[in-house]
Amino acid sequence: MDGAITVQGVLALQHLKLLAKNQLKALLFIEEPQFSLAQLVTEIGRGSVTKRALQLAQDFAFRQLEALNRHRITPLLLTDPRYPHLLRSIADPPIILYSKGDISKLSARKPVTIIGSRTASAYSSEVARRLGYLFSASPFAVVSGLAVGIDAAAHRGALDVADGCTIAVLANSLDSIYPKENTGLAQEILDRGGCLVSEQPPGAVLRKSHFIQRNRIQSALSYAAILVQSAINGGSMHTMKFAAEQGRILAAYEHHSADAQYAGNQKVIQMMRGFALNNPESIVELQKMVSIQTFSAHVPSQSSQLALNL
Question: What does pTM read for this prediction?
């Protein structure tokens, strides 16, 4: 492992739990590092890591790579040129992003995330499908979470376009599909040139917290976050909050109803200063806003090495 740290090295270090995430991130950006994994572990662990523990970590990393190959999953380090630049621009990007399919679309197009309730009304589902259709053709791409309801409708709307592009961000690892009923949809996304992404490694046990973590990735991959239907405390509101913190454009479909199932939409429009989508012209205006957006990734300076001093 002489030279720059590799995916296998990162997996081993994560298994050993010697470094906090920000320290591991700093390590990746050290210019022209010269070390072996054993030397690094000795320096950081100050002799606390046995040869047996190091060997077990290396074996674990090797098995993870085997699982990735078996499931045709591509691991992308934060420093990988293929790593989506929008995601790299946030404060806490995944150290490793796992992908299946053509992840280059996330950099070649202008992605927007379309989200909403799993128990959406038939009308809202149709709105999501229409928005998916309108934002999937070049130069745009649709990002969503593969959940039932609004997410699935947005993905399907994107696939209604001949050259449509859609990306699914999963809360679980890519060696399985959740929810199971969207397994066929996930495969169609891949067959049509889209991709699936996750920060969870193969074999990871799905936890409730993973859905909130997934939401920050969903918004980070996109230039804009569009809410189609959500109650005031709906899970999609986490995504809108992340989008606001990340400096993304906020938008929400304006339902002319006081029903509580649309209260999240009203909050985005009235309290979070989100853009209201209520007619074809407003959608065109949002597309123009997305088209002129730019983000640059923050790359830690070499002074980040200071974070490694334990």
Answer: 0.90
